[in-house]
Input
Amino acid sequence: MYRTADTSLWDDPRMRGLSKDGKLLFFYLFTNRMTHVSGIYVITPPSIMHDTKLGAQELTAALAELEAAKGCNGEPDPLVYWDKDRYVMWVVNMFKHQGRGEKNIRSAAAHIVGLHNSPLIDKFVARYPEVGDYLVLGNGVQLFAGGAVYKSARPVSDGSPVVTVHEIVEMWNKIPGIKQCEQVGDTIKKRIAAAISKHRTLAWWIDFCLRIENSDFLCGRASPKPGSLPFVATLYWVTGPINIDRIMAGDFDGKRSATGGWKGKL
Output
């Protein structure tokens, strides 16, 4: 997984005014393994302290610096926002530096639905209204992906099984390039049901399908090794617990060369 940084960041007066701990924390917040291309994601203080070696008081002070940053005119211009009640972090300008294609916008729309109704979602959509064009909240969730509409009449809520085997199969069959699931037997039903028990919300599965759709390797678009056919993922394969973890960890993001090496998308 790769993240892009603008070298002019060092000329930003907000950065110049940060302490050593503040600068360390800021760079950590857009390069750690929990980040999302949108720049808004869930992360816990213990994880931050473990990775950065900042103590609790040092972390609190550094985070306060980032939230209190001011622009050239002296007006508040935070580098990050922190929702401490839901552990949601937003690196404000990160999204615009990670590429602005439609896939990234759709991925951001799918992702923010699962952020536990954080008040930072409204701030994020106000900053990036193009994401709001792909997102309708209220009685249900409507997201556009793969040229199709994924829609649920039921609200997303933590702790309730808001996604069904049928909905997952329907989403899967709309991903271009994959091997479609034409018949859903008992074996695949049990495998999907086991995955649903760990990942219950529609938003999570939409994000999961978008990651697959964006993978050249999983969708058969990668150049195979000489004498081999391209790998094409099946629904049974992607819903295995190990493969779910690998997909969500970004193991299949990017493009694969003919020699089998991985080249990440910047």
Observations:
- Confidence is low (pLDDT under 50) at residues 136-161, 256-266.
